[in-house]
Amino acid sequence: MNAHEIDYNIFGEEMQYVEIELDPQESVVAESGSFMMMNDGITMNTIFGDGTNQDKGILGKLFSAGKRLLTGESLFMTVFTNSGHGKKHASFASPYPGKIVPIDLSEFGGKFICQKDAFLCAAKGVSIGIEFSKKLGRGLFGGEGFIMQNLVGDGMAFVHAGGTMSKKVLQPGEILRVDTGCIVGFTKDVNYDIEFVGGIKNTIFGGEGLFFAKLQGPGTVYIQSLPFSRLAGRVLAMAPQTGKGDRGEGSILGGIGNLLDGDNRF
User: Fold this and answer.
1) Could you tell me the CA-to-CA distances from 76 to 30, 58, 225 in Å, in that order?
2) Torsion of CA 150, 156, 161, 163, to 10 degrees
3) How many helices (H) and strands (E) does the chain have?
């Protein structure tokens, strides 16, 4: 094993957190802003990248940090190490309502591909890198662009799914069509591409976007019911507009008022 062997428990239903159990000198690497609580005896250390290139000099550190910059994440991550005696615990929380998904990379051939903002934390030794799309269509219209994250190693990693999470095990040749924003991640053998919705009415009036994500097995796929972009869009759409006042959120008159002043978002 290259990655530290960690034990864990996941608590909660809608707003979950994961508690990591660390033996002496064991460490967990976490995304900035995910920390919740920890026992006395655990030390925090902010590092460039994911820590897997810390022994390769300044170039290794810059390369590791640069990969994270390309995915839109912070250059820095935080390592939590049990520097005391006996078992200690550190906990990390979900950023918004949903489920925390434990990924044992040793069961998935040592690699898992996920959305850029799905990663929460992992055992030290797991590499958090970038996954470039090799297909132009997927890069332009796939929702996540040319770049996704890959988690590489043989330890435990934890990703976050918004809303309710669905796990689908695809057989060879089996196809699943998914809204591009609803993908949490998938194993390395899954063939990921995009597919045009088709039909003039579907394209103009369907309201589901122009493209599906097409996932073809074999492999395992994790799907979320509430992508953060969808949640943020709904919250923004319902936010009161400056200078328009409050006509009654759920009333008929409120809807008519919005229509009359050019705001037709019901």
Assistant:
1) 10, 14, 29
2) 170
3) 5, 19
Which pair of tokens denotes residue 133? 């799309």
* Cβ contact 185:154 at 8 Å: no
CA pair distance 116, 264, nearest whole angstrom: 33
Sign (positive/negative) of CA torsion 52, 55, 58, 59? negative
- Yes or no: domain 7-232 corresponds to CATH 3.60.160.10: yes
What is the DSSP secondary-structure string of 51-88?
STTTTSHHHHHHHHHHHHHHTT--SEEEEEEE-SSS-E
Residue 109 contacts by C-beta under 8 Å, 6 or more apart in sequence?
187, 188, 189
d(CA 51, CA 146): 24
Segment 179-190 shows an average pLDDT of 89
DSSP state of 259: H
The segment with the largest mean pLDDT, out of 40-49, 63-72, 80-89, is 80-89
CB-neighbour burial class of residue 151 (10 A; exposed 0-12, middle 13-18, buried 19+): buried
Is the distance from CB of 37 to CB of 49 less than 8 angstroms?
Answer: no
What the block records as the tokens of 152 is 């590489």
Q: How far apart are CA 65 and CA 51, in angstroms?
A: 9
Q: Choose among 187, 24, 27: nearest CA to 109.
A: 187
pLDDT at 213: 82
At 160 the three-state DSSP class reads strand
